[in-house]
Amino acid sequence: MAGKKQFDVDIALDAAMVQFWRAGYADTSLDDLSRTTGLNRSSLYSSFGDKESLYLRCLDRYAARYGTRYDQALSRASEEPLQAVRAFFEVTLQRIADPDVPDGCLIAQTAMAAPALSPTIATRAIEALGFQHARLRTALNAARLTERDADDFAVHMTAVNQSLAVMSRTRASQEQLRTVIDISMSALARALQGRG
Fold this sequence. Notes:
Largest sheet: none
Number of strands: 0
Shape: elongated
Distance between the termini: 66 Å
Structural class: mainly alpha
């Protein structure tokens, strides 16, 4: 039909997201995007705008997809805080183990490259990390930690979660990643036992 897009936008966005995730923003060319999405440059521009606009849409898509999974994992934090935080980390471990996606984390990768990226992209990555911190802080507040402890642990857990993604890029084993999580969980368990 004339004027109707002849491709699935979601499939094209997923393909572009994986390409950016695998190679990074700077090392992904329009030819790479054209090849992975199956769209010519004209279709890419008319559907998604320039490369930066497409990257921002991919970042948002990534953050929403995994953010929803993190929210589900943390939803029972008020009743079962340790199990909820461990489930939060399981979302990351499952992503790392998924053979259909690249190692690491698109947001962490973007944050590390932020000095070389546009302010708009850098800001979006920082916002996504802020959302992760906020969802953890909310869950830990629901577990009745003090405001200060909830915030401190949220900062720590966010950093641990991002480090898991970075470590996965260096081929750290699942056992090593779980050891990192276990140490953090032990500290959280002590804090929860000591709550008033």
